[in-house]
Amino acid sequence: MSEKIQKGVTRRRFIKTTGAAAAVxxxxxxxxxxxxxxxxxxxxxEWGGKWSQVLKESVFPEFEKTHNCQIETDTAFPFAPKLMxxxxxKPVYDVLHSNSNDQWKVAVAGYIEEKPDPAKIPNLKNLxxxxxxxxxxxxxxxxxxxxxGYRTDKTDCKFESWKDLWDEKFAGIRGxxxxxxxxxxxxxxxxxxxxxxxxxxxxxxLKAMEALKPVKQVDFTGTMEKQLFSGEIIVGVIHDSAxxxxxxxxxxxxxxxxxxxxxxxxxxxxxxxxxxxxxLAYAYLDYILxxxxxxxxxxxxxxxxxxxxxELEQKYKDHLFTTPEQVKQLVQVDWKWYxxxxxxxxxxxxxxxxxx
Amino acid sequence: MKAVNWGRIVFRGLNxxxxxxxxxxxxxxxxxxxxxxxxxxxxxxxxxxxxFDKFFTDPDFMGxxxxxxxLALITVVIATVIGTMAAMAIVRGRIPGARFLTAVxxxxxxxxxxxxxxxxxxxxxxxxxxxxxxxxxxxxxxVTIPYVIRTSTTVLYNFDTxxxxxxxxxxxxxxAVFWYVTLPLIRPGVIAGSIFAFIVSFDQxxxxxxxxxxxxxxFPIHLFNYLKYAFDPTVAAAATVTIAMSMxxxxxxxxxxxxxxxxxx
Lengths: 356, 265
Description:
CATH architecture of the largest domain in chain A: 3-Layer(aba) Sandwich
Helix content of chain A: 40-55%
Number of domains of chain B: 1
Strand content of chain A: 15-25%
Order of helices and strands of chain B: HHHHHHHHHHHH
Distance between the termini of chain B: 41 Å
CATH architecture of chain B: Orthogonal Bundle
Oligomer: heterodimer
Distance between the termini of chain A: 96 Å
Shape of chain B: globular
Number of helices of chain B: 12
Radius of gyration of chain A: 26 Å
Structural class of chain B: mainly alpha
Number of strands of chain A: 11
Largest interface: A-B, 31 and 27 residues
C-alpha cells in the first residue's frame, strides 16, 4: 500500500513538476513579449564618438520623454549594407542618418522615402535650399563645407582657387583621401569642374589626379587633421568643422573657401519605407530640424545648420555658413551619378596612386 | 688571439634589427600615450598622464573595453573546448570526410571576416533574433575556432599514441586517458590556440561591425568611432593599456602555467 501511495505521489509530483516547468517555460517565452510592450523603440543610426555623446546627453532625453519612446542607436558604420541586408518591409532601422552618397545607394535600392512630406515634418519649410534640393534624398539637416585646410605659419598662399592645391611647391606636402572616402570623391569631381568641362568630366578628373602626385593620401579626416597639426602636410582637403573646432586652441590653421566654391558634405536623415513607426520617425526628423536642436548640434560639432532660423553664438557665426549668401557657396555634387560609376572610377583612381 | 666570429655578430645584429622593427611601433605608441600635446605628434612635447585619466574616466571607453574583454574570455573558453574536441575527432575519429570537415572548420580563415559578419547578420535577420550579445559571441567563436583546431591538430598529428595505449593497457578508461595522458601532452597546442583565439576576439573588428547590438559596441569599434572626431592621444593611452594587459596575461601564464614550454610547437 505504502509503495502504491509512494508511486502515486511520485506520479502526481512528476505531473505537477512538469506542469510547473511548462508554465515557467511558456512564461519565459512570453516574457520578451511582456518586456516589448514597454516604450516604442526607434532604431536609428548615428556617428559614434563625440557626435554620439552630444546626442545622448543633449538631444535624445527630451525626445524620448516627450514621445514615450526609447532611441536605440547603431554607431557601427557602415549602415547601408546592414539596411540592405534586412527585409524592405522590416528594415533594421527606422531612421537612417549618413552622408548623401550612402543615402543615394539605399534610395536607389528602394529602402528609404526619397522626399519627406512637409505635412509630416513642419520644419522642412524653414530650411536652406540645400537641405531638400534635387541632389538630396531624405533631408540634409546639417552640412560641412569641404575646402582646403592649411598651415598659416608655413605658407603665405591663401588658396583662393582649388588649382592652388596643384601648385608644384606643395608637392609631397599636400593631402587628399582614398577614393572610398567621400571627401576624396568630392575632390575628384571638383577637379573635373576646375580643370575640365564639369563635375562629371572624369577624364579631366583623372588627369588632374595624376598631376596631383606626389600627395599624401589618408583614410579619414581625423588623420588629415593630425597631419596638418604635425606639419606633415601644409595643405589638405578637409571640411570646415575639422578646422574650426580647433580655433580656440590658437592652432596655426585656417580654412580656405576657394572661388570655385566649397563642396557640401551633407549630414542626411531619411525614414525607411518599411518602418513600422513612421509617425515617430517623422517626429524625430522634425525634432532634429528644430532650431533648438540645430543650435545644440551645430555648436557642439561646428556643423552648418540647415534651419534658417537658428541663432548661433557669434564665434560660430564668424566661421559657419548661416546666411543665404554664404550658403550659396556650397556646391552639391550628384552622388546618384557618382555611385553608378563608382567601381570603374575607383579602379582608375587607385591605378594612378598605386605606385606613388 | 681569439678570432672574431663575424657571422655570429652579423646574425645577432640582424636579430636586434628585426626585433627593433617589430617593437619600435609599440614603443612609439606608448610614447604618444604619455605625450602632453593635444595631438599625436613626434617627438613628444612633454609628459602627461591626462590621456590615461581620460581613458579610465570615460564610461564609453570603459564599457567598450570590458565588453570586449568579457567577449574574448567567454570566446576563449568555448572556442577552446569546441576546437579541441573537433581536432580530436578529425585526427582520431576515423570519420569519413575528415579532410572535408577540416576544410569546413578552417574556412572562416579563408573568408574575409567582413563576409562572415554580413552572413551572420543576414542569418539573424531571417530567424528574427536581431543583434544580441549571444549572436556577437557566436560570430567571435566562429572566427576563433579555426586557430584552436589548427594548433591542436598539429600537436595531435605529432603525438606518440603508444603512450595512450600504455595507459589503456594499464586499465585507464577513455576519459582518464584523455584527461591524464592526452590533454597534458597536447596542452601546448591548446594553449597556443587559446591565446590566438583571445587576441583575434579582442581585436575583432569586421565581424563585430555587423553584429554589435546598438548601444553595446566593442573596443575596436569604439576606437574607430572615436577617431572620426578626435585624434588625441587617448587612443594611444587605450592602446598602451591593451599592451600592458596582454603582457600581464602572458607573464601571469608564464609564472603559473609555465607558458614558455607550452608555446613550443
